[in-house]
Amino acid sequence: MDRKKVRLYAVTDRSFLKPGEQLRDVVEKLLRAGVTCVQLREKKAEDKDFLEEAIALKEVCHHYHVPLIINDRPDIAKKAGADGVHIGLSDMKIEKAREYLGENYLIGGSVHNVEEALRAQKSGADYIGCGAVFGSSTKTDVTELSIEELKNICQSVQIPVVAIGGINEQNIGQLADTGIDGVAVVSALFAAEDKEAATRRLLDKMGASKRKTALTIAGSDASGGAGIQADIKTMTVHGVYAMSAITALTAQNTTGVYGIEKVSPDFLGNQLDCIFTDIYPDAVKIGMLASADLVKVTAEKLQKYQAKHVILDPVMLSTSGTRLMQEEAIQVMQEELFPLAELITPNIPEMEVLIGRKISCKADIEQAAKTFCQRYHCAVLCKGGHRMQDANDYFYGTEGAHWLYGERIENPNTHGTGCTLSSAIASNLAMGYGLLEAVKRAKDYLTGALSAQLSLGKGAGPLDHGWKGTIG
């Protein structure tokens, strides 16, 4: 049993389901948020219903590459094609379960002391569940296991150890130094109002999400100044673990764009599935999406996985003037992606396209941002540098309307400024800053990257993304 797979082990309890709610749908929410193992426990179901539920859960668990364990029923596990079985040592011997299932199934056993743990290990258990560490809200006939005995068990065995029994957000910290590999949780997940948020908080408290993560969905820049290369550099220096889904390959450098090869929508979707089902991003930055089909699959996947902190940089033109987005794609982006975004970061030419109005002064920017926010129901950061001959940007959203003044840096090397700013905003959101503060911090970072006066290439060169080292 991979120790990482027992980090957050969800044990089902359909008594917490609301009217009309399906267990499969609830389990998928938990998996999407980061649950690493699922145990199907059905004490009262008929065999036929138990098997049907197991088959349904196996499909969703395997989609997220998470093992499904069946409680107490090796026969159901085998018929459903589940990954294993968890048994109470008083209910069945591990050797008997192994004989029935063979070597390709996982077997876990419930233990209450060091002696039972050693016996389970010797019998061939792949992992053990130890409890009840804090009593239990779902069982009345349990014996509590002391923290000291839990430590002794962890020190005595070589197989993964999972703590179970009454574990919740308030007491999980008491298990930090015991040596356990994971926790098994019932009501703290299934009874939670917001199950995905509860999952992520438990993972945070388990130390599984200390390193924040961010995803860039964008095109590749062969010269490294913009696109995913700029995004990854920016995220990395902010101390955030960066991931990327590539939408297009471009042949470009500081003098212009000389070729674009789009990826297929299916392949982009495949990339996003791989990312969201394994390392869930704390924030998402979206850049170049050249076609309507790429916009649609991006929106579909972000909605499916309920992506959070989505920052959309509507890349329509390159710095050198090359058109990077089809007309149809712009319309689809407005209809399908804008509703999913927390913030959109157009420059003035892009803002003019999006609202259908010319912008020539600060008052125009203010009115355009207000119109934009009312129309699309998300915050907007209108970047003024392209036309206003200053470094002032205008933020409009639920945190109010704010001019964000900045020092204009005399530097002809501005390749990738929009990519860099939006990635810095996403990085700050991933680290827990509020939206307006994230924008302010990103703007300061961009100013520093320009002020470093990096000079590379024969045209509009790149910024110095690493001007301050790691700043997270």
Short description:
The chain folds into two domains: 203 residues, TIM Barrel, CATH 3.20.20; 239 residues, UDP-N-acetylmuramoyl-L-alanine:D-glutamate ligase (3-Layer(aba) Sandwich). Helix content is 39%, strand content 19%.
Properties at a glance:
472 residues; alpha/beta; TIM Barrel; UDP-N-acetylmuramoyl-L-alanine:D-glutamate ligase; 2 domains; eight-stranded parallel β-barrel; 17 helices; 17 strands
How would you describe the overall organization of this protein?
The two termini are 34 Å apart. It is elongated and about 80 Å long. A nine-stranded mixed sheet has the order 11-10-9-12-13-14-15-16-17, sandwiched between helices. An eight-stranded parallel barrel has the order 1-2-3-4-5-6-7-8, surrounded by seven helices. Strand 3, helix 3 (74-80) and strand 4 form a beta-alpha-beta unit. The chain is α/β, with parallel strands linked by helices. The protein has two domains: 3-205, TIM Barrel; 213-451, Ribokinase (UDP-N-acetylmuramoyl-L-alanine:D-glutamate ligase, 3-Layer(aba) Sandwich). The chain contains 17 helices and 17 strands.
- CATH homologous superfamily of the largest domain? Ribokinase
**CATH topology label of the largest domain:** UDP-N-acetylmuramoyl-L-alanine:D-glutamate ligase
What is the number of helices? 17
| CATH-level-2 architecture of the largest domain | 3-Layer(aba) Sandwich
Low-confidence stretches: none
Rg: 26 Å
How far the N terminus sits from the C terminus, by CA atoms, comes to: 34 Å
How many independent structural domains?
A: 2
Approximate strand percentage: 15-25%
Largest β-sheet summary? 9 strands, mixed
CATH class of the largest domain equals Alpha Beta
Instruction: Give the strand order, joined by hyphens, for the main sheet.
Output: 11-10-9-12-13-14-15-16-17
